[in-house]
Write a structure and sequence with these properties.
Helix content is 41%, strand content 15%. By secondary structure, it is an alpha/beta fold. Helix 3 (72-86) packs across helix 9 and helix 6 runs parallel beside helix 7 (190-203). The structure holds pyridoxal-5'-phosphate. Pyridoxal-5'-phosphate binds next to helix 4.
Amino acid sequence: MNIEAFFTEDTKAALQNDPPGQWMPTLPDGCVRLSSGVPAPNLIPVEELQAAVSRLLEEEKDMPLHYVGSPNMAKLKEQLQARMLQRGIRASEEELLITSGACQAIDLIARILLDNKTVVAVESPTYMEALEVFQNYTEHFISIPVDEYGLQTDKLEEMLAERESKGLPLPSILYTIPTFQNPTGTTMTMDRRKHVLELASTYDFLILEDDAYGELHFQAPPVPLKAMDNEGRVLYLGSLSKVVAPGMRIGWVTATPKFINTLARFKKDLDHAFAQATMASYIDRTDLEKRLHTLRETYQQKCTALLSALEQHMPESVSWYVPEGGYFVWVRIVGVDTAKLLTQALDEGVSYIPGKHFFLNHQEGAEYLRLSFSYADHKEIGEGIEKLSKVIKRNLS
Ligand SMILES: Cc1ncc(COP(=O)(O)O)c(C=O)c1O
């Protein structure tokens, strides 16, 4: 049976893009995982989550296992509202929708705002899963380069002005990760934050702010765009994947009540009552501030270990941005195709993600790679960078 013959034209068009998730081959045993943008196993609060599950079932019996769910789901909303308030974002209950991770939120937002005529502005490079989602809906993109100070808003302004003068369609939405960006680890400066909000207002587009790493700051926390947004243009995405556990699939969107209502109308997975109630029960008994403090210290130390190893082992032609938080270091190796280098690196026992996967249609980024310091421990990080430097030096000479 050729079920594919029944696919819609839109589905067929989306399938023209590379198959999603093809960016990392299976890792060999014992490989140092500098590719993995996930928490280290010892940073997942397994026992505390186990206790939360037991407590929940003891207190509420079958309730969180039903469609209707448990009162704890409402509590989770309050807990997330309190976390956002810490970051300067005041959101009412009507302005908040809990989703199955930030990824579901991106997909739902794309479902509502994009069709095959819509133009999306994206950072270049950016989070590959988001690119894959947007490409399921449209093929019209504007890519704006990112430098060490985040999205280059002057370039965005130039592109917008040029498109306007030529009568070309303007973007409906800009997707940005202003704080500890994936993959570059960079943070948008305050001036650029103000500028991008001004541009959104002048050229009338929405901003999708992905703040998945926002709470993992090594110094003073940057102010989210949403906290500076007077017009309700910013759709804000949060996630507990990087600070609690990605498998719990707790993310959220904050936007105007009407927009949240529309998202809820199209969100047909009926909520993950058990995961949401468990998370609420976990947060209820956790000193989250203390946990975040420990995570920030731990990731900062791992980041320092990675940066020192780069300093120590890498040849002169290799350069990188120094992050102020998050999980990633973005590395440039002039004259080397990092996608071709990967097989040798895996043979040597270290993994990374080749830079091209973070660019639209993989047309740029051959000289870049993304390293993550979140998963490996200090010793592995040092060993991994030494191995990687060996492979790089071999290919430079
Ligand atoms: C920028 C960014 N947004 C969203 C996510 C995914 O978040 P979630 O697990 O909540 O879907 C990631 C995960 O790597 C990410 O890097």
